[in-house]
Design a protein that fits this description.
Blueprint (H helix, E strand, L loop, with lengths): L15 H27 L8 H8 L3 H12 L13 H13 L4 H21 L3 H9 L7 H19 L1 E13 L9 E13 L6 E7 L15 E2 L5 E3 L2 E3 L10 E7 L2 E7 L9 E10 L8 E6 L5 E9 L8 E7 L14 E7 L3 E2 L12 H12 L6 E9 L5 E6 L5
Parallel strand pairs: 1-11
Antiparallel strand pairs: 1-2, 2-9, 3-8, 4-9, 5-6, 6-9, 7-8, 10-16, 11-15, 12-13, 12-16, 14-15
Helix pairs in contact: 1-3, 1-4, 1-5, 2-3, 4-5
Length: about 400
């Protein structure tokens, strides 16, 4: 078997991209040597064996076996950098291997790989935990798969910390012409929160935020006032409750105004799975001109497993080029979020998917076809004339701001 050489110390990274490259190479070599020694101890490849089976066959500590399996099964071992065993555990494995007659060359290669990794740790950070944080901080160099793994871990941690989680945060926005040629364009906004769960009673978290006027003369409203999509119950002024999409015990709510945005917060006395609920809301906005600006924002303040946007644009207003979807870490409820958003967590080029109800089905979104029909009916548009642009992202960071826009208009 040919083994790649351990990266020499002179190659230790001095910047983010070099750090990721050096750590990745070091972890790959380390993982291979660990798997090789453990496989020799069990007289079989570890890929085909369970943790319990390997522990029984080799006598190696089960926790160490689990870490080696975790590294070996990862698409890229650096994705599981937390599982890289420490020097003491590796020394123990080397002693077992030597006592069982494993070739000295393989044992030495294992110890050298461990030493090289520890050298990277000490030259990069003061301890292992800070080292992992530093490497994770270079996520843009790790690829989208690794970023998603980290966001999922953050979702789990933040849900536990804040006591609230959301299965899916969805926005369907419909843009089309007004009823008469001289009318301004119309935007219909339909929001759905799917599988929201509170783990603490009487703690309020945002459920809806919509741009609005306020009484501060220094603020310039971005849109005229919203209005409900139909008569009947409202979540807040101008926001209809869409009871036909509701599931579970609906929450208690309160309304606040923040920097020109209407923010509705919700809490629930019923905690855990028993209190999980789905709720939907709708509004109509008349835009400021005959042609709408395709530039919308969605604030994310609650840990959610997925955020999604279906933007339906009437054929009359379909842009010539693809749209851009960006998820930023940060942002507040401001009229100009662009002035207060930070690191780009995700960026997607979003081409038109197609026209009409054929594309309305959205996996994981309850009654997505009915949601589409409601938007078209409310705006008075022919469904066949509506073109879909779809954005989806698993486990967005919080606080986060999603911006979906037409870059050619800037």
């Amino acid at each position: 078997m040919i083994h790649p050489s351990v990266p020499p110390s002179r190659d230790i990274a001095q910047d983010a991209s070099q750090l990721v490259e050096s750590v990745s190479q070091s972890v790959n070599v380390f993982t291979m040597t660990l798997a090789e020694v453990l496989g020799d101890l069990s007289d079989s490849s570890i890929a085909d064996q369970t943790v319990d089976g390997l522990h029984t066959a080799t006598g190696v500590n089960k926790s160490l076996v689990w870490k080696i399996k975790r590294l070996q099964q990862a698409r890229q071992p650096i994705e599981e950098i937390e599982a890289v065993p420490g020097r003491r555990a590796v020394s123990g494995l080397a002693k077992i291997a030597s006592s069982r007659g494993i070739e000295a060359e393989k044992v030495n290669r294992l110890l050298e790989a461990s030493d090289r990794f520890e050298q990277l740790v000490t030259q990069t950070a003061s301890d292992r935990e800070l080292f992992v944080t530093t490497v994770r901080g270079c996520a843009d160099q790790l690829g989208p798969e690794s970023q998603e793994v980290m966001r999922k871990k953050a979702f789990t941690a933040m849900s536990q910390l804040l006591g609230v989680s959301l299965g899916r945060m969805h926005l369907s926005m419909f843009m089309g012409p007004g009823a008469n040629p001289e009318d301004n364009a119309v935007a219909v906004t339909l929001l759905m929160n799917v599988g929201r769960t509170h783990y603490r009673p009487d703690v309020y978290w945002p459920i809806v935020s919509i741009s609005s006027h306020d009484n501060n003369p220094e603020h310039q409203p971005v849109v005229p006032p919203r209005r409900p999509i139909r008569p009947g119950p409202q979540l807040a002024e101008g926001i209809s409750l869409l009871d036909e999409f509701a599931q579970g015990v609906q929450p208690k709510t309160r309304v606040t105004e923040r920097h020109g945005n209407l923010v509705v917060e919700a809490t629930s006395d019923v905690v855990g799975k028993a209190g999980r609920f789905t709720a939907a809301y709708g509004s109509i906005l008349s835009t400021t001109g005959p042609k709408p600006d395709i530039d919308l924002y969605r604030f994310c303040r609650v840990p959610c497993e997925e955020i999604s946007v279906d933007l339906w644009v009437h054929r009359q207003f379909v842009p010539q080029a693809p749209l851009t979807g960006r998820m930023y870490y940060g942002g507040e409820y401001e009229y100009d979020p662009k002035s207060n958003i930070g690191v780009v967590i995700d960026e997607q080029t979003i081409a038109a998917t197609g026209y009409g109800p054929t594309y309305a089905r959205n996996p994981g979104l309850p009654n997505s076809k009915e949601f589409f029909d409601l938007g078209c009916t409310t705006g008075g548009w022919d469904p066949a004339e509506m073109c879909l642009y779809r954005y989806r992202l698993a486990c967005p960071t919080i606080p986060g701001t999603l911006r979906l826009y037409d870059p050619s208009a800037e």
